[in-house]
Structures are given as structure tokens and as C-alpha cells.
Amino acid sequence: MKDTTGLTLIELMVTLSVFAIMTAIGTASFSGIAQSNRYTTQINTLITDLAYARSEAATRNRAVSIVANTGTNWATGWQIVVAGSGAVIRNTDALPSMLTLNGNVNTISYRSDGTQTSGAVSITLCESGKPGNYGKQITINTTGRHTLTEGVACT
Q1: CB atoms within 10 A of CB 140
Q2: Which of 60, 97, 114, 146 is most open to solvent, judged by the fewest CB atoms within 10 Å of its CB?
Q3: How many CA atoms does the CB half-sphere of 121 hold within 13 Å?
């Protein structure tokens, strides 16, 4: 008899089935990672702008404010403005429509010493229409320092 090498049809079908199952598991896992990265990117953008505004207030030796474009809905974007002159030094566009970013104030003002005048500030990032404890919240105290809390309840 001849010695043959290769795969039988059954071996090939089993291999393809295992490959399809592993691909499905990997795709589901990747979508969760992508969603987490979207949240992290958006909250980091706001954190960066908060630090920038505080730094600019100290550099310019005058008050600098971050102002939400629409009321306390920070998801529509915000501007960093120099007090007195009204000069806009940075403008941040709206977030993707699937995300909400709501706060208890519409303006955060930093003095030249880095403290802020808006009282206790909290801004929460959530996904639209998806309740659960997966939100991220920035809290800013009166000294101007911020903290990030994860796992905040979203409604």
C-alpha cells in the first residue's frame, strides 16, 4: 500500500469548527476592550483639559475657565477661556453620541494659584441608555485637584 499524507475531510471540518469558535470568542472579547478604550479616551481628554486650564491660570497669572457648550451637558463639548479677555485658548468637540458626560456645574474656573472657584464639582461619563455601575466620575475639590472614580452608577 501507498503511504499517503494529508488531512481527511473530517479532520479539516473539526479544525475549521474550532477556528470559528475561537474567532467568535475573540471578537466578543475585543468589543468589550474597544468600549472600555472609548470611555478611557474621553475621560482622559477632559482630565487633560482640566490640568491644562489650571496650568494656564498659573502661567498667565489670571483666572481661566472651562465652560460646557450646553448647560451642564459636557458631552456637547467645552471651551477653555481666559477670564477678562474672553479669549478661547482651546476648544474640545462633542463626544460620540453614544456617550453622556453630565456635571453639576457648567463652568469650572481656576484662579492663578490653581484653586477653583466652582465649589465641589463632579462630572460623570456614561453610555447613553445603558444603566449599570460602569461609569467614570471626575471629582474636583476646591484646591483644584481632581480624582477619578470608576464603577459609578449610571442611569
Answers
A1: 23
A2: 97
A3: 30
Please give the model's pTM, rounded to 2 decimal places: 0.78
Q: How far apart are CA 3 and CA 130, in angstroms?
A: 61
* pLDDT per position as a tens digit, 40-83: 888 999 999 999 999 999 999 999 999 999 989 999 999 999 99
What do you get for the CA distance between the two ends of the chain, in Å? 72
| C-alpha cell belonging to residue 147 | 480624582
How confident is the model over 103-130, as pLDDT tens digits?
999 999 999 999 999 889 999 998 877 7
The values of phi and psi at residue 32, to 5°, are -65, -40
What is the C-alpha separation between 39 and 33, in angstroms, rounded? 10
What is the DSSP secondary-structure string of 93-116? PPPPTTEEEEES-SEEEE-TTS-B
